[in-house]
Amino acid sequence: MNLAGSVVLVTGGAGGLGEATVRRVAAAGASVVIADLADDRAEKLAAELGPGARYVRTDVTDEAGVAQAVEEAKKLGTFRYAVVAHGGFGVAEKVVGRDGSPAGLAGFTKTVDLYLTGTFNVLRIAAAAIAESEPDVDGQRGAIVATASIAAFEGQIGQIAYAAAKAGVVGMTLVAARDLGSLGIRAVTVAPGTMRTPIMESVGDEALARFAANIPNPRRLGRPEEYAALVQHILENPYLNGETIRLDGAQRFGPR
Fold first, then answer.
1. I want to staple 13 with a disulfide (CB 3.0 to 4.6 A). Which of 18, 51, 65, 70 is the partner?
2. Is 252 part of a structural domain of the chain?
3. Is residue 81 part of a domain?
4. How crowded is residue 28: how many other Cβ atoms within 10 Å of its Cβ?
């Protein structure tokens, strides 16, 4: 499948992984909807990319907001692809704290709402819209790429909310591919390791060096452009379906 002439919706499209993806698909000839809450960055990016890019302020947990972003994507042309790459919240908390108190429920719920419920919200609304497009000669209508994390498999101490949410995204992937197979829509998930996003860079060079030391090869953090390159390949390769692909330099999280 060719991105040129199609429309791609990217949640978190003004952030590290999302912005790299927006730039990549735009360079491949796609129109793109930047679905985010970061008004200044998103508006600047859309203006830079020109008339084929549009910013739609979007809360991924809000049904009406996601539906509006999808409607804008349909106005730009043939809507075939969605990439779920949003972030923005996390809580570090052990199941039982040092003082003997149980972890708070609010942080867990908010994390799961953002990363798991938000992913499903985009998946279901985008898939229904993509299903309205005409199939190609192989019966294919498009694809949706979600973003998990290697924490889904090796969650660290204090990551129970984030690991649970991302494990849920992994768990949805094959089911979504099976559910959407009759519609000619594929579902694939990327599980990144430690990526050098702007938020990650804010921890400082010393911490970044410590993170990189635990990555076998290449011994550095992943680049958002590498995530975007994988996403483009997934969108364009019609036989990739129902799979979660690790993007981590063979990194495996330890307990801490």
1. 18
2. no
3. yes
4. 16
pLDDT confidence tier of residue 232, bands split at 50, 70 and 90: very high
Pick from 222, 241, 228, 233: nearest CA to 150:
222
Mean pLDDT of 164-178: 98
Joined together, the tokens standing for residue 2 give 């060719």
Range of the domain at 94: 6-247
Q: Is residue 78 part of a domain?
A: yes
CB burial class (10 A; 0-12, 13-18, 19+) of residue 11? buried
CA angle (67, 91, 33) in 5-degree steps: 25
Return the H-helix or E-strand segment holding 124: helix 118-130
Which residues are annotated as catalytic? Answer: 162
Condensed to tens digits (0 to 9), the pLDDT of residues 73-87 reads 999 999 999 999 998
Sign of the torsion angle spanned by Cα atoms 11, 13, 14, 19 = positive
More confidently predicted of 205 and 122 = 122
In a domain, 254, yes or no: no
Does the pLDDT value for residue 9 go beyond 90? yes
Q: What is the pTM of this model?
A: 0.95
Number of domains within the chain: 1
